[in-house]
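Reviewers asked in the last cycle whether our approach scales beyond single polypeptides. To address this, we selected a multi-component target totalling 381 residues and predicted its structure end to end. The input consisted of the following lines:
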Amino acid sequence: MKLKIAIYWGAACGGCDVAILDTHEKILDIAAAADILLWPVAMDFKYADIRRLEDGYLDVAFFSGAIRNSENEEIARLLRRKAKTMIALGSCAHTGGIPGLANMYGRDEILDRVYRSSESTVNPEGIVPEERYMAGTDEELELPRFYNNVRPLDQVVDVDYYIPGCPPASMQIYSAIGLIADDMLPKKGSVIGAGDRALCDECARKKGEKTINRIYRSHEKVPEPETCFLEQGFICLGPATRSGCGSRCIKSVIPCRGCYGPLDDVKDQGIKMLGAIASVLEPKDEKSINAILDTIVDPLRTVHRFSLAASILRRKKA
Amino acid sequence: MKRIAIDPITRLEGHGKIVIFLNEQGQVDNAFLQIPELRGFEKFVEGLPVEEIPRVVTRICGV
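The resulting structure, written as structure tokens, was:
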């Protein structure tokens, strides 16, 4: 029997949806194995179509994107009710992703910058979106509530599996769908469609004794082509990141920023990375160590690039 | 006053909804396109090292 699936996005860019399409001709295998009952980017189903279904009718819901507003949360809860298996697809649903960087700020700071103070904005009346707006005497419009912070999917609903990555590698999505179709899913809560080692363990760059005397930014030095980035002083999140991406950034001569998230036994990816940096510094006295660490521009958004909303810091204090 | 909602609008990147109000004669009185999403890149890229901006803003739209 064909699987009944829904594919949905919360606060997302659509890159996860495109990663599904980037399975190329294998999308035909997916179409043969599954009936798709919701997929806004590619098909014309409405929320009302999902609300009409019996609870548990869907076999699987793939949810990409973070929970940024009340609509994201409402549809996450709706799909959780309608689906037997809920899968967080991609970094945003898994760990908050890039939208989670907004957790450095509160709701009002963001709305003010976007709608009032940005240099390209003309808004003399200072209008910001409102949840309710009366367009006429009886023409009421509603918008979702923009929350004070961003949450990954599992801070809102029960999540059965995670497919990490920004975006997830297409063939990893394909293999994960294979696990579902073949009824071979591992235990609930597992990360699927990824490796179980650190990216460093699969990286082709040569690793020797790491002793760093200074941190380099990408414009300060041309990276040597075959040596570990971290060993050369470039921050690379490989030691703190799950493998499974195929080293796609590193192969493009760009250090890892951690989109595949932490390994199973790691609670906080960013803190794991800070530990990795500390362990490769050559100086052993505190003053010299701090002098090097102080040269890391924006450490928070470096080590928590994709994971701030899932970290132990999680968000700006209200 | 009859209200018709097309929610979500589909086959595009991003979230959108269309709300149409009809008058007593069944004619369109008003129609609104609503964009019920915001992530706030304008704010949260502030202060990022400039060389990191391209790999962050590519996540505005991945389609």
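The beta strands of chain A are 3-9, 34-38, 58-64, 67-69, 83-89, 132-136, 139-142, 146-151, 161-163. We regard this as preliminary and will revisit it once experimental data from Aim 1 are available.
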